[in-house]
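Morning!

This is the sequence you dropped in the shared folder:
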Amino acid sequence: MMDDFTHIIVDGYNVINSWQYLTRLRNKSLEFKRLSLISTLQNFSDYTGKEVSIVFDGNGAKELSKKDGSLSIIFSKKGETADTVIERLVYREKNKKKILVATNDRVEQNMIFGMGATFINSADFEMKIFSILQCLKDSYERKNS
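The structure's back. Tokens below.
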């Protein structure tokens, strides 16, 4: 399924609060969980070459964006939600790229589906990401054993 998409957009805090491996880190800070998600998706993006954008709710005067290879990290500006940024990204790219949005937010799923993107719930997204990363690990271990 993931092979079909050229751009994967992730609802950052929604995924952090849904992924089992991150919710098990109860005693860790939100920043630690955010960095863990970013690191995981950076590995995925580097391995697959897929464009990945992780969008978080922010509180700065303007939208902040950082790009590292094919991974983008975006914080919405104060008064704007991550959902609004996701919708803007989908709208801008809907005729140029095949987009997958990872979120459990039903309203957001309906909105981006209506704009021509596809969605995946966070649990399925977690399973797919870790399955792909396990294949990478297995391949690496076979080559180095």
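Headline: The first helix runs from residue 12 to 16.

More detail when I'm at my desk.
O.
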